[in-house]
Design a protein that fits this description.
The chain is an alpha/beta fold. Helices cover 29% and strands 29% of the residues. It has 2 domains: 111 residues, Nucleotidyltransferase, domain 5 (2-Layer Sandwich), CATH 3.30.420.40; 82 residues, ATPase, nucleotide binding domain (Nucleotidyltransferase, domain 5), CATH 3.30.420.40.
């Protein structure tokens, strides 16, 4: 099975193609919030470089949020276009879960933190289960990062641009628990891997009813 996955809800945009769980192709574009200009060309380039056609894709996936409201609308509109044009199944995943998948730490919890603007971060916490699947421990929220830093624990790894941006709020003894900067980027391959579990469970999106997960009242981002 070939999965086509992409993300446009963060400051980066990413596109990936997977065959089962093997990544055939992936690109990440760090050009700021200009996803209306870069996502479709990146998708076209992915097909060109892999010699695949849209009809070769069995399953589509993208992030549903939280994240940039404009970016979420661009991503979901693109996903709906693929769903309607191909009549192939599609799934959406949490952007925070995809971010948490950057961390392969099996013994500690993972707190994913995305910069949400307005002095807030989007965050949720996760842990790998005995089967190696990422499980949500605490549902996604938009909060003041100081609240996370004040309750920071050595048993938690913090990942994402929100953790990097607000690292100075953490006790100096726990800043080593913040994942390195290169892990702050949300990867489309992680979106695809998480979506495969949705596929296995039959959790598919409907183009008529699927909507972005904004998490707070919409504004322009």
């Amino acid at each position: 099975m070939i999965t086509f996955a992409f993300d446009s809800c963060s400051k980066t945009a990413s596109v990936a193609i997977l065959q089962k769980k093997q990544v055939l192709y992936e690109t990440l574009l760090n050009k700021g919030l200009h996803h209306s200009e870069v996502l479709l060309p990146a998708i076209d380039e992915a097909f060109r470089l892999t010699n695949l056609l849209v009809t070769d894709i069995d399953f589509f996936a993208c992030t549903l949020g939280p994240g940039s409201f404009t970016g979420l609308r661009i991503g979901l509109s693109t996903l709906k276009g693929f769903m309607l044009a191909t009549e192939k199944p599609a799934a959406g995943v949490s952007s925070l879960a995809a971010l948490a998948l950057n961390v392969k730490e099996k013994e500690r919890n993972i707190c994913a933190m995305m910069d949400a603007g307005r002095g807030q971060v989007y965050y949720a916490s996760y842990q790998y289960d005995q089967n190696g699947l990422l499980q949500e421990l605490e549902i996604a929220k938009a909060v003041n990062p100081r609240l996370i830093a004040e309750s920071a624990s050595p048993n938690v790894v913090y990942v994402g641009d929100g953790a990097i941006k607000y690292a100075d709020l953490f006790p100096s003894s726990l800043r080593q628990n913040i994942a390195p900067a290169y892990q702050q980027f949300l990867c489309a391959s992680s979106v695809g891997l998480l979506a495969l579990e949705n596929y296995r469970q039959g959790n598919f999106l409907s183009p008529e009813t699927c909507v972005p997960f904004y998490l707070r009242s919409t504004d322009v981002t």
